[in-house]
UniProtKB/TrEMBL annotation:
The keyword Transport does not apply. It comes from the Bacteria. Keywords: Membrane, Transmembrane, Transmembrane helix. It comes from Hansschlegelia plantiphila. The keyword Membrane applies. This is FxsA family protein. The chain crosses the membrane at residues 7-26, 32-51, 72-97. One of its GO terms (cellular component) is membrane. The lineage of its organism: Bacteria, Pseudomonadati, Pseudomonadota, Alphaproteobacteria, Hyphomicrobiales. Pfam families: FxsA.
Length: 144
């Protein structure tokens, strides 16, 4: 936790240094316009994700902000783009690259952990294990 707090406190200083570096390279006006354009792209990305979620809910689906494969990283990239600063923009670009997406997802969400009972092998991911009370045997032919 102290590391995260330290990073949050030092981020504005690093962003300011990055902005000064970019502004000295391309000019102050261009740097401000570039930062404004990237922030608007981030807001548009977040808006697009929210529109998709609303459409899913209207169609009878469930609105979820879980760490799924594409939406969470697109949302993170949009959020990083919307926050002013060139360093957060660079992290946002990395969140859009597929190889970095998987690494970042592992870092943020961890690996899925399966419960293991001693003496039993782990079930494949597409296999649903049921307790004896949760199923019944059906006769051949499909009639129950």
């Amino acid at each position: 936790m102290p590391r995260i707090l330290g990073l949050i406190l030092i981020l504005p200083v690093l962003e300011l240094l990055a902005f000064v570096g970019v502004a000295s390279a391309i000019g102050l006006g261009k740097a401000v316009l570039l930062q404004l354009a990237i922030s608007l792209i981030g807001v548009a990305m977040i808006s697009s994700l929210l529109t998709e979620a609303k459409t899913r809910v209207r169609g009878g689906g469930v609105m979820s902000f879980a760490l799924d494969k594409s939406h969470s990283m697109r949302g993170l990239a949009g959020l990083l783009f919307a926050v002013p600063g060139f360093l957060t923009d660079a992290l946002g670009v990395l969140a859009l690259v597929p190889e970095f997406r998987t690494r970042l997802r592992r870092l943020l969400g961890g690996q899925p952990v399966t419960a293991r009972t001693p003496g039993r092998r782990a079930a494949p991911a597409d296999l649903i294990e049921l307790d004896r009370r949760e199923w019944r045997e059906a006769p051949p032919g499909g009639e129950a």
